[in-house]
Write a structure and sequence with these properties.
single chain, globular, 88 residues
């Protein structure tokens, strides 16, 4: 089970929305995979696979650098997710 605060959930949600928007026409299978991650993020007890975590980390890189998407917040979340993904 993974616990995210509201800011982290919003960053992940925005990254997934951005990814779906850019993939909508080209890869419907991957869009469905992203939809599954979004559904999981809505639950209280969040369970993500390593592949799902790695996908989130990947798409966090594509958020534009603005006041809304603070680079430090994104980097901290990526670091935390990478640590989870690297667990045995």
């Amino acid at each position: 089970m993974i616990n995210f605060n509201i800011k982290e959930k919003n960053l992940i949600s925005d990254a997934l929305k951005y990814a779906k928007k850019s993939l909508m026409e080209s890869d419907s299978g991957h869009v469905e995979f992203l939809n599954d991650i979004e559904e999981e993020m809505l639950k209280i007890n969040i369970l993500l696979s390593r592949t799902q975590i790695d996908t989130i980390v990947y798409y966090l890189n594509y958020l534009p650098q603005t006041e809304i998407y603070n680079k430090n917040d994104v980097s901290n979340l990526q670091y935390r997710l990478n640590r989870l993904s690297d667990l045995p």
